[in-house]
Amino acid sequence: MTKNHFWRIAGQLIAVFLAAVLVTILWSNLNRNFQQLGIQFGFDFLGQQASFDIGEKLIAYNPTDTYSRALWVGLINSLRVAIIGIILTTIVGLTAGIARLSDNWLVRNITSVYVEFFRNTPLLLQLLFWYFAVFLAFPKVENKISLGGLVYFSQNGIELLGMSFSPEFSALLLGLTFYTGAFIAEIVRGGIQSVHKGQWEAAQSLGLKPGLAMRLVIFPQALRVIIPPLTSQYLNLTKNSSLAIAIGYPDIYFVASTTFNQTGRAVEVMLLIILTYLTLSLSISVIMNLFNRTVQIRER
């Protein structure tokens, strides 16, 4: 074992030891404060009756169910927003990013205005706008707006192919999609421009049309630059979904806040929220890192 290798391992062990000491001190301090206040730390409250309703749910739930069941409902609502949001924001960001490089003056400038507007205004303000100025301004359900008989808009939200989405969910989803999509558009644009122009010339020399050259030659190479910052935007979208509480969508943070207000278990509830978002973020990171490996150039 070389000297440098020894000190590298020793440094890592020391860092782990110091981290363990810090956690032990903080945990001891927390227990001491609980004892002084006469509060018992624990998660037994999760088995108690929640006694509050949740307006939007994908699994069966009623107020007589436990707090753990209520938190599951909130988690599923959060996953619903995150998964659909990631799909939609990828489509929006990819489309806008490519359009930013269009030879068409109108298309290029419209997408530029979109990117600059949504990137430079607060997300919370955008969510409030979508909810109060857009969805609540729609006509009542009996006078709903129809688009080709496939999509309907009303104060009850969006109806698409027989599926109904509440105004709270719709406002949150659209707000997150267009906000995050603006950042992804710039990531896509930068990734495409990072590919050497010689690749375009090579594709043209093979007789490939611009669209085909983009799909087969340029974009696959751009992915190596796009994916790392794209992962960060997916993480931001997932964490930003906690702003749902501002417009009344019952995500995990909304349900956890109600649980805390009723039980007074601040530390336990905050730990559950932290672990939830940490797990979601690490899961997205692992998936995107695996995808990133598939597009990297392997040296022989």
From TrEMBL:
Membrane-related topology note: Multi-pass membrane protein
Keywords: Amino-acid transport, Cell membrane, Membrane, Transmembrane, Transmembrane helix, Transport
CDD domains assigned to the protein according to its UniProt record, in alphabetical order: TM_PBP2
Keyword Transmembrane helix: yes
Species the sequence originates in: Anabaena lutea FACHB-196
PROSITE patterns membership: ABC_TM1
Major localisation: membrane
Name of the protein: ABC transporter permease subunit
Residue ranges of every copy of the ABC transmembrane type-1 domain listed in the record: 75-288
Residues spanning the membrane: 6-27, 79-101, 121-138, 171-192, 212-231, 269-291
Pfam families, sorted: BPD_transp_1 (PF00528)
Xref: NCBIfam families: HEQRo_perm_3TM
Localization per Swiss-Prot or TrEMBL: Cell membrane
Family: Belongs to the binding-protein-dependent transport system permease family. HisMQ subfamily.
